[in-house]
Amino acid sequence: MDATKILLGEGDIPKAWYNVAADLPVPLPPVIHPGTKQPIGPGDLAPLFPMALILQEVSTEREVEIPEPVREVYRLWRPTPLYRARRLERVLDTPARIYYKYEGTSPPGSHKPNTAVAQAFFNKQEGVRRLTTETGAGQWGSALAFACRLFDLQCTVYMVRVSYEQKPYRKVMMQTWGADVTPSPSERTNAGRMIRGRDPNSPGSLGIAISEAVEDAATHDDTKYSLGSVLNHVLMHQTVVGLEAKKQMEMAGDPPDVIIGCVGGGSNFSGLAFPFMSEKFGGRKVRFVAVEPEACPSLTRGDYLYDFGDTAATTPLIKMYTLGHTFMPAPIHAGGLRYHGDAPLLCLLYHHKYIEAVAYQQRTVFDAALQFARAEGIIPAPESAHALRKAIDEALEAKKEGRPRTILFGLSGHGHFDLGAYEAHLAGRLEDFAYPEEAINTAMRELAAIQP
Q1: Is the pLDDT of residue 273 over 60?
Q2: pTM, rounded to two decimals
Q3: Domain boundaries, the chain
Q4: Is the dihedral of CA 362, 181, 174, 80 positive or negative?
Q5: Confidence category of residue 335, pLDDT binned at 50, 70, 90
Q6: What is the pLDDT of residues 53-72, one digit of tens each?
Q7: Which of 96, 76, 142 is nearest to 414 (CA)?
Q8: With 0-12 CB in 10 A as exposed, 13-18 as middle and 19+ as buried, what is 93?
Q9: What is the CATH number of domain 5-10+68-109+238-450?
Q10: What is the mean pLDDT of residues 342-351?
Q11: Which of 89, 106, 171, 270 has the fewest CB atoms in 10 Å of its CB?
């Protein structure tokens, strides 16, 4: 097939999400109540989430129907294109065939609306008036602001302070859709005031912003909390990406040998990879590679332990690869990849070696982003560029071996609001940072005390 773009019609938008929990080769460890040390029930989650999402969170059904109002909104940008990166292949002089599923065509410019729209719909159905959330680089916050506007919900976003300052136009995007955006840590919550009391100049973290958003939701009867990654239902909503990609790769007649995605919390990688995962469970030799920054190496250097999802330790305990909930990230520009842990479903599969993981420093990631932009034209989001870096390395390895391979990676969004990072890289001001081993060891010792 000679096409550069492999396109589907609106009739090909999936009618159901794929739930990998139905096909897991090993059971998922339960979510634990930190007080009782017993598995939580639906009632424990009810203050934060609508019942429809709670039922999806614990579902073991292989397919969960996508409501028609959600599919109607999806039609604004779905199906998204699958590209064959022919120009990049020529630049690399590789026998590899490189494909990328591009999610930057959504109104907010990333994959995040796939779950934001679904979450806004289910909350609206149950009479919720306002949603609170956190955001790192702003992709998730802008997606939820967009979704809330479409379903007439109020939206409050706690944005990690360093990203609030680095990426002002994502804040403007959220405000354009009507969201209330606050830099975190803030003075609006007890959690924020506590952090600022200890460090008035705190750059913030996703863990801190989660604490603020959860506290805000839990203290207002008309409000629920919305999370853009990590949870089972969020990953399931993102499988529209992989379901479409699977059909498009079949149209190309070129099944992937390696599937690559960046990982912060896990929604982007899992959305692309999980619909293909059943092939690996069935014995097909396909590799899955999760890519993260050296500054936040949860999978590659963290431990598989129970941990809180937020800095203030207000959430249930979930088993995941973690750097510890008190993790304070360096102010790298891949703001969406700075979470201390990862999705339990992804971590389980990584723990049992169904998934590989690799970490990169940010300068080599931006080198790959420039190479891609100059060949293919699209400026990748810094987060997406991590997957791109690995895809290029795989293609170069194929060149060295003299053997072709088919590479599929997720280009989860564009970098039009991340040009400050590109400016810093082009000027030679971007610095590499590896998270200190001593900090990881300290966090692991502290986590030993809270294990069930």
Answers
A1: yes
A2: 0.95
A3: 5-10+68-109+238-450
A4: positive
A5: low
A6: 999 999 999 999 999 999 99
A7: 142
A8: exposed
A9: 3.40.50.1100
A10: 97
A11: 89
